[in-house]
Amino acid sequence: MKIRVFDSYEQMSRAAAELVAAQLLIQPDSHVGLTAGSTPVGMFAELVRIYQEGGTLSFSQARFYNLEEKMGLPPEDESTCRSYLHRHLLDHVDASADQLLLPDSMAHDVETACTDYEALFRSLPGGRLDLQILGIGKDAHIGMNRPNQALIAACHPVQTESALYAAMGVSSILLARRIILLANGESKAQAVANMCTGQVTTAIPATLLQLHPNVVVLLDKPAASLL
Ligand code: GLP
């Protein structure tokens, strides 16, 4: 686990965007797992800026995925992850809607949406993503994999208080060739410290990343304050 600490959220976001941009420059047809939430908003903005200013970065051959999708809603509903990723990235770069591959939010049956999404990951070259971007929850969850006695490896349904999701399991996350995890703010400091230095346990899902050979953790100073 490589840890880099930045003075500000903006600097952290820029570094993350540069890593994603480098991935796409080196391998334009990369399969990239994205994440929603507030943490990566700055990274997406920087990627759009690099794209619009630079002229060399292209998203046109890549495929994009996400850690989860909200079920039972038309894809264009503003609360779906599809809408989020269009708003923050796809609508501003040379990527089309069919490059974003998410669980079918309108599937009759969430189990089928999950099985299909898992099969999609298995069909990737080498059965894995080239890069997965992650945030972290205050309880050190990754994606929608919350602390538990056991975690589910494959894509699975997750019911929260407000919605039903089809969510990536820990296997597709951990199989990614490379992982970039972002965390900012003091509220994530304990989770970050646990992730980096705690014993590996499903009770702190992010500790599983200690087992991965290629993880970069990008933090702002407050998120790194307990390291
Ligand atoms: C949700 C998402 C996670 C994300 C986390 C933190 O639970 N499923 O993937 O990392 O929230 O979100 P935020 O970046 O808004 O703090």
User: Main beta sheet, described?
Assistant: 6 strands, parallel
Low-confidence stretches: none
Strand line-up in the sheet with most strands: 1-9-8-5-2-3
**SS-derived structural category:** alpha/beta
Q: With helices defined by DSSP (H or I, 4 residues minimum), what is the helix count?
A: 6
Query: H/E element string?
Result: EHEHEEHHEEEHEHE
Which ligands accompany this protein?
2-amino-2-deoxy-6-O-phosphono-alpha-D-glucopyranose
Distance between the termini: 13 Å
**Helix share, percent:** 25-40%
Structure description:
The chain is built from 6 helices and 9 strands, in the order E-H-E-H-E-E-H-H-E-E-E-H-E-H-E. Helix 6 links the parallel strand 8 and strand 9. The two termini are 13 Å apart. The chain is globular and about 45 Å long. A 6-stranded parallel beta sheet has the order 1-9-8-5-2-3, with helices on one face. It has 227 residues and is an alpha/beta fold. The mean pLDDT is 97. Helix 1 (9-26) crosses helix 2. The longest helix is centred in the N-terminal third of the chain and has 18 residues, at 9-26. The structure holds 2-amino-2-deoxy-6-O-phosphono-alpha-D-glucopyranose (GLP). 2-amino-2-deoxy-6-O-phosphono-alpha-D-glucopyranose binds next to loops.
